Amino acid sequence: MTTKQKTRAAVFAFTIAFLAPEAVSAQTRGTVNPKPLPTLAKPDDPATPAKELFGRQSMPAPVEARVIGFYSKGCLAGAKALPINGKTWLVMRLSRNRNWGHPSLVQFLERLAEKGPKVGWHGLLVGDLSQPRGGPMLTGHSSHQVGLDADIWLTPMPDRELTRREREEMLATVMVAADRKDIDPEVWTPAHTEIIKAAAKDPIVERIFVNAAIKKALCREAGNDRSWLPKVRPYYGHDYHFHVRIKCPTASPDCRPQEPVPEGEACGKDLDYWFTDAILYPKPSPIPSKPKPPLTMADLPPACRQMLAP
Ligand SMILES: [Zn+2]
Fold it and tell me: What pTM value is reported for the model?
């Protein structure tokens, strides 16, 4: 291997390691009896990972709702919980206590859930939003830190209320075919396109992440109304849920917006990269990649410290 190749391999390995926590993680089950986390010996130690601190917050900061920072580096004040049962939605993995978001996100989810049956989607199974005070998490996700991201399963809500145990242990249906080049026609339905389209058409939505194979299907099935396609971005993983990200709320001056989505539908040739062998069948790197150090409080906006006060 030449030096150039080695550098390229290292950069690729780093990219995969960096993206991995959210990108390629398989589905994890929860438990109906989660064990409480042990008390931290030195919570004030500047080296303490921020996820250890925010992962121990069980209630929101009781102040006006405010987003602080960026989707993958921030926290949330005055979060609201999405109720665990709605007429047309159910929250999954209750043991994680991640059904908290900015009130605008909760309202969006309620709006989308109501639209669901009108577009042929029986109801939403809702995965992770954020922790009660946002911030980094002990497991999964590099984003979902500011109460503006939500994962929605690509499995419709069943006709009955799921039990606590089912909400922890049920697995979502993977929508991508075994060769990863398209959706699995055995499980994909027109209603899948319709529910993602309904989400993308909501003006509050900033972007949506789906697997490239799903994006390919959406491009094919969009028909003449294609205005919503640019918001739907191809990404690693995301083969059993779609990830909705909403815009910075107006009353949150400390919310850092993301670069606007690039112009164009991101269909056809724009998807080719995602179906190359390097992406579909990544080779393990011969150079072991160093894991990224976890975020500490110094990496987050200073105002996030106030979120840790009792
Ligand atoms: Zn997500």
Answer: 0.90
